[in-house]
């Protein structure tokens, strides 16, 4: 057996161990803390599926004594003071290990690679359900009130990495927006890909304690157990969305004038978007409303509103001066060279402006 082959087998063995151990943590939390037999069964099934493909040849390649990573820890492990943080860390550990198994399994064990991919997507859903099992219905609305920066995605290469970076930068509200006809790298995005992307982003948001909404598509929001939907003026009425989604999920509404905002309030929306403040390629052909409508919303809106449309670090101060405590951005993060740094900069500006108002 070649050196490369031995190294690959050791790598597969290590990541199978890592994934199975992480799943056992999830399984025991579902068993002893949540008392949820259904979640125990799902965790156990995934762990056993990996056990069935953990071949002896992988185990025989194991050599812990020469593994430079054996026994290494990380300071972040000491920071996990809450069960949700432990769950998120172990779910992430499982997903990362499964991704390694997908990539390297194609070399030595194609069947393992295929099974690892299937299990990884199942773990996305399991993680969300475990975290949801310990939450209360009102937490979504309480979280919404605390959010100042709202990331609305656009179809970009490596979308999952962009959103992960934004979450690392402090974003705690994400909307998946992928309109009909959207393309990435010259290829049209179909509903299968939307579903896969939304599942992955949903799990990322759950791991960071962030809210996750879907633009327009109530069916997709239900399919991935999103926290709610955002509706445009041409979408289904909020009353119909509420009937389909139930009382606990969030509903947002785009508005371009005060009358639409008032109607959204009467329709029971949880928040509104106010804009576009400036012309933006995200809304081609839409006449910008400028800062005057932001000022009206600040004076009249009884529910949270997010100013949106061409907002970035260069004009945020003016938007805040018009009365917006919260903003939604697209390109300011998705097209930034460093999405995490861009998110931190925007949040720092929002918090600095808020601090100035308190001092006044």
Folded structure, characterized:
- The chain has helices spanning 3-32, 37-52, 56-60, 83-108, 110-133, 139-146, 159-168, 191-207, 218-223, 238-245, 258-266, 290-300, 316-321, 331-334, 339-359, and strands spanning 149-152, 173-176, 183-184, 187-188, 211-215, 228-231, 250-255, 271-274, 305-308, 327-329.
- With 360 residues, the protein is of the alpha/beta class.
- The protein folds into two domains: 3-133; 139-359, TIM Barrel.
- The strands form two sheets. Strands 1-2-5-6-7-8-9-10 form an eight-stranded parallel barrel, surrounded by six helices. Strands 3-4 form a two-stranded antiparallel ribbon.
- β3 and β4 form a beta hairpin.
SSE map:
Blueprint: H1 3-32, H2 37-52, H3 56-60, H4 83-108, H5 110-133, H6 139-146, E1 149-152, H7 159-168, E2 173-176, E3 183-184, E4 187-188, H8 191-207, E5 211-215, H9 218-223, E6 228-231, H10 238-245, E7 250-255, H11 258-266, E8 271-274, H12 290-300, E9 305-308, H13 316-321, E10 327-329, H14 331-334, H15 339-359
Parallel strand pairs: 1-2, 1-10, 2-5, 5-6, 6-7, 7-8, 8-9, 9-10
Antiparallel strand pairs: 3-4
Helix pairs in contact: 1-2, 1-4, 2-5, 4-5, 5-8, 7-8, 7-15
């Amino acid at each position: 057996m070649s050196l490369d082959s031995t190294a690959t087998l050791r790598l597969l063995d290590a990541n199978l161990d890592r994934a199975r151990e992480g799943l056992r943590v999830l399984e025991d939390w579902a068993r002893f803390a949540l008392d949820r037999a259904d979640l125990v069964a799902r965790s156990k099934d995934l762990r056993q599926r990996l056990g069935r493909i953990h071949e002896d040849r992988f185990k025989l390649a194991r050599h812990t004594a020469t593994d430079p990573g054996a026994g290494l820890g990380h300071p972040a492990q000491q920071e996990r003071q809450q069960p949700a943080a432990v769950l998120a860390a172990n779910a992430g550990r499982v997903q990362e290990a499964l991704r390694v198994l997908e990539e390297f399994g194609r070399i030595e064990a194609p069947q393992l690679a295929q099974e690892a991919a299937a299990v990884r997507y199942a773990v996305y859903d399991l993680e969300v359900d475990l975290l949801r099992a310990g939450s209360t219905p009102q937490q979504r609305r309480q979280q919404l009130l605390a959010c100042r920066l709202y990331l609305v995605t656009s179809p970009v290469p490596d979308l999952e990495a962009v959103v992960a970076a934004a979450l690392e930068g402090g974003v705690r509200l994400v909307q998946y927006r992928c309109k009909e006809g959207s393309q990435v790298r010259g290829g049209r995005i179909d509903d299968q890909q939307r579903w896969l992307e939304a599942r992955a982003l949903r799990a990322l948001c759950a791991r960071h304690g962030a809210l996750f909404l879907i633009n327009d598509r109530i069916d997709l929001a239900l399919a991935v157990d999103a926290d709610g939907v955002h509706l445009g003026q041409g979408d289904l009425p909020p009353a119909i969305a509420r009937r389909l989604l139930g009382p606990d999920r969030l509903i947002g509404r785009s508005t371009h004038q005060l009358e639409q905002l008032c109607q959204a309030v009467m329709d029971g929306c949880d928040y509104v978007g106010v804009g576009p403040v400036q012309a933006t390629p995200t809304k081609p052909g839409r006449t910008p409303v400028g800062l005057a409508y932001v000022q009206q919303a600040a004076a009249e809106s009884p529910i949270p509103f997010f100013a949106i449309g061409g907002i970035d670090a260069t004009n945020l101060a003016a938007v805040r001066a018009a009365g917006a405590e919260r903003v939604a951005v697209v390109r300011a993060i998705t097209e930034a060279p460093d999405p995490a740094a861009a998110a931190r900069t925007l949040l720092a500006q929002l918090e600095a402006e808020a601090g100035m108002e308190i001092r006044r």
